[in-house]
């Protein structure tokens, strides 16, 4: 005999089995994978949704709700932790992680959605009964009833320190970013309170799905025939799906003639391809090509000029992804598995070189909200030698008169301008190229010559690009 029926008889009520809600169970499973395996939600959630649809458990509304529960909970984790800490009689670190995941899901339903209070509490308690057991479900019920006593604004007045006393901590709690990330983004952005609040809010918005039509294989006009498709803001190859949608259902994406690619990444490739050269334009290199999105666009742009693209990626399995992305490219290309800091090619072999270096990923927090909770300031020290080494190799790989593009999906000054400045001190035979004229129509690019894109200003990831010409 289990404990649960005995407890039920003591209360004088027949034991009722918990109701299994496939949507919330799936959301819980996704959060556990993110927590336990350091997985990314954008990689974990699609196969879970696909399996649920195949089993007949989900329709489109169910999938949309599950997606909102997972991403909304991850984005607002810092805020919800502050609220839950006020409702729990112990430090949050002493609450079992699965219990905390259920509480966070409940907090998001109560404070971040339009789900009625009673429904949010009862559905989360039923989830707790299924995945945690009846005993801990009572704890979940008691905590969520405390959470339900105030709306989000009411809680923020209680748990966020006043802005005038501690601006960074206030913004950290209100906009659910670690304090050090708020500080770093503010340093890079500059300006006052309005700009940083707009940026932090944009980081918490769900990004649109953006497609790229690979030149010579597909056109933006073809993709615009899809439902809810509108032109990109800045890239001539970009199309946005304003109502989400499943990119894999689009024929051009299935065939590899188009792909999913943030418009900021497209602009990096476009600017490098458009930079003026002295001399021939026959050999291009993508020195950090995995998983292949920029390489596929660069390969298509190179093919229009009859140029060869060499796509290099250190990790063999990621090199395989690059090969898949380039399969069917209309021009010549070569994919190699090689360490970008120990080149497998002769110095001065290329006319154009791109290095989109590994980084903290602070520019892609819209798409990978859990990254903000995993990264630490000390991670910058780990990336610094690699970033500088890759840029040095890129400058040695380009011929005199050729151009290198240094790109990173982070606006942190330690990963952008500091890297470029340090390396160029060792390479006096270089000049920075003004990248702004190569992105016509894109506003708010700063004083140059490098460019920093922003989610709140451009609707893109916070991509950074510096173009460097080898002069002698």
Structure explained in plain terms:
The chain is of the alpha/beta class. Helices cover 48% and strands 13% of the residues. It contains 21 helices and 12 strands. The chain has helices at residues 3-10, 22-37, 41-54, 60-75, 77-85, 97-112, 117-131, 134-147, 152-159, 167-175, 179-189, 193-203, 220-223, 251-254, 263-274, 293-304, 316-326, 371-374, 379-397, 417-425, 455-458; strands at residues 209-213, 229-231, 238-241, 258-260, 283-286, 308-313, 333-337, 350-356, 398-408, 430-433, 451-452, 464-470. The strands form 2 sheets. Strands 5, 6, 7, 8, 9, 10, 11 and 12 form an 8-stranded mixed sheet that branches. Helix 5 (77-85) packs across helix 6 (97-112) and helix 10 (167-175) packs across helix 11. The longest helix is centred in the last third of the chain and has 19 residues, at 379-397. It is globular and about 90 Å long. 43% of the residues are buried.
């Amino acid at each position: 005999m289990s404990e649960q029926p005995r407890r039920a008889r003591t209360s004088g009520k027949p034991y009722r089995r918990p109701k299994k809600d496939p949507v919330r169970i799936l959301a819980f499973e996704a959060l556990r994978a993110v927590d336990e395996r350091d997985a990314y939600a954008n990689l974990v959630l699609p196969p879970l949704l696909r399996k649920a649809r195949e089993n007949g458990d989900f329709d489109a509304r169910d999938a949309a709700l599950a997606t909102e529960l997972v991403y909304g909970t991850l984005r607002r984790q810092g805020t919800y932790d502050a609220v839950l800490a006020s409702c729990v009689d112990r430090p949050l670190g002493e609450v079992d992680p699965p219990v905390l995941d259920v509480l966070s899901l409940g907090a998001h339903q109560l404070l971040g959605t339009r789900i009625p209070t009673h429904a949010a509490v009862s559905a989360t308690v039923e989830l707790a009964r299924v995945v945690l057991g009846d005993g801990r479900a009572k704890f979940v019920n008691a905590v969520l009833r405390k959470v339900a006593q105030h709306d989000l604004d009411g809680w923020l007045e209680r748990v966020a320190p006043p802005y005038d006393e501690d601006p960074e901590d206030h913004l950290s709690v209100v906009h659910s970013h670690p304090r050090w990330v708020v500080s770093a983004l503010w340093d890079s952005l500059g300006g006052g309170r309005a700009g940083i609040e707009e940026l932090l809010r944009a980081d918490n918005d769900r990004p649109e799905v953006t497609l790229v039509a690979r030149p010579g294989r597909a056109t933006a006009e073809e993709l615009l025939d899809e439902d809810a498709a509108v032109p990109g803001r800045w890239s001539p190859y970009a199309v946005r799906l304003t109502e989400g949608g499943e990119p894999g259902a689009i024929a051009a994406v299935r065939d590899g003639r188009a792909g999913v690619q943030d418009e900021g990444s497209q602009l990096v490739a476009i600017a490098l391809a458009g930079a003026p050269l002295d001399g021939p334009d026959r050999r291009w290199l993508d020195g950090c090509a995995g998983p292949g999105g920029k390489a596929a666009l660069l390969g298509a742009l190179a093919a229009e000029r009859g140029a060869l693209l060499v796509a290099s990626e250190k990790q063999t399995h990621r090199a395989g992804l690059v090969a898949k992305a380039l399969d069917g490219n209309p021009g010549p290309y070569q994919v190699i598995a090689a360490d970008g800091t120990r080149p497998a090619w002769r110095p001065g072999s290329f006319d154009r070189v791109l290095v989109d270096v590994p980084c903290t990923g602070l520019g892609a927090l819209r798409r990978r909200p859990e990254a903000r909770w995993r990264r630490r300031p000390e991670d910058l020290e780990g990336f610094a030698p690699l970033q500088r080494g890759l840029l040095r190799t890129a400058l040695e790989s380009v011929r005199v008169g050729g151009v290198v593009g240094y790109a990173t999906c982070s606006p942190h000054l330690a990963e952008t301008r500091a890297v470029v400045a340090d390396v160029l001190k060792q390479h006096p035979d270089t000049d920075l190229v003004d990248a702004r004229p190569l992105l016509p129509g894109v506003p708010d690019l700063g004083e140059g010559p490098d460019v920093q894109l922003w989610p709140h200003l451009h609707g893109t990831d916070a991509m950074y690009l510096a173009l460097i010409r080898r002069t002698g």
